[in-house]
Amino acid sequence: MKVILHDLGPEYEALIDSKCDRSLAADGKYAPCQGCFGCWTKHPAECFMKDKLHEACRILGQADQRVIVTKNLYGGYSAAVKNVLDRSIGTSTPFSTYRGRQMHHTLRYGRHDLVKVIVYGEVTEQEKETFRYLVERNAINEGINRTEVVFLPDLSGLEAEL
């Protein structure tokens, strides 16, 4: 299953939906993570807040391929995308294991094939380096086999990258 998480406006909805099985719009119409860890323990992979991200853990956790479309924010995800990623901590469990000779949380849904991050907007070389490193580290933590980071100066080339 291919899932696209994006911070694009509603004018991109038809394009996004035509390129994936599920999509999550990081539009800010949801509450931020409360840090209760209930999605880890009390009700696994399900947030207690009954908003549009209630099942974000399950959607992202079941994805073989994740595509994240985000505006650059100092070499990191936009605030809206980061908020969704924070709410998806339930894709793992509170238990730990070793991956890559490092301690990480065990995966609730197993390993995934690919995460592709499409970054749009102005990006310096140092921000590109930071973004690549961030995506690589996130991939190790989330059990993702392959990473790809694409930088677009604007959204005109988005369709070809999805």
Summarize, please.
It is built from five helices and seven strands. It has 162 residues and is α/β, with parallel strands linked by helices. It has one domain: Rossmann fold, CATH 3.40.50.
Structural overview:
The chain is an alpha/beta fold. The protein has 5 helices and 7 strands, in the order E-H-E-H-E-H-E-E-E-H-E-H. Helix 1 (13-18) links the parallel strand 1 and strand 2 (22-25).
Supply the CATH superfamily name. Answer: Flavodoxin domain
Unreliable segments of 5+ consecutive residues: none
Q: Largest beta sheet: what is the strand line-up?
A: 2-1-3-6-7
Instruction: Please write the string of helix (H) and strand (E) elements.
Output: EHEHEHEEEHEH
- Taken from the alpha-carbon principal axes, the silhouette is globular
CATH architecture: 3-Layer(aba) Sandwich
Work out the number of β strands: 7
Query: CATH class, anyone?
Result: Alpha Beta
Using the coordinates shown, work out and report the CATH topology.
Rossmann fold
Through-space gap between termini: 14 Å
Q: How would you classify the quaternary structure?
A: single chain
SSE-based structural type: alpha/beta
Q: If you average the pLDDT, what whole number results? A: 94
Question: Portion of residues in helices?
Answer: 25-40%
Strand percent estimate:
25-35%
Task: Kindly give the count of domains.
Answer: 1
Gyration radius over CA: 15 Å
Main sheet, how many strands, which sense, barrel?
5 strands, parallel
Number of helical stretches of at least 4 residues: 5
